[in-house]
Amino acid sequence: MIQHLLEPLPFAQCITALFLAILFLQSGLDKVFQFADNLAWLTGHFSKSPLRNQVKGMLIVVTMIEVAAGALALIGAGQVAFTHENTLALIGAQLAAVNITMLFFGQRLAKDYAGAAALVPYFLLSIAAIWLMSA
Question: Residue 71, Cβ neighbours under 10 Å: how many?
Answer without folding.
Answer: 17
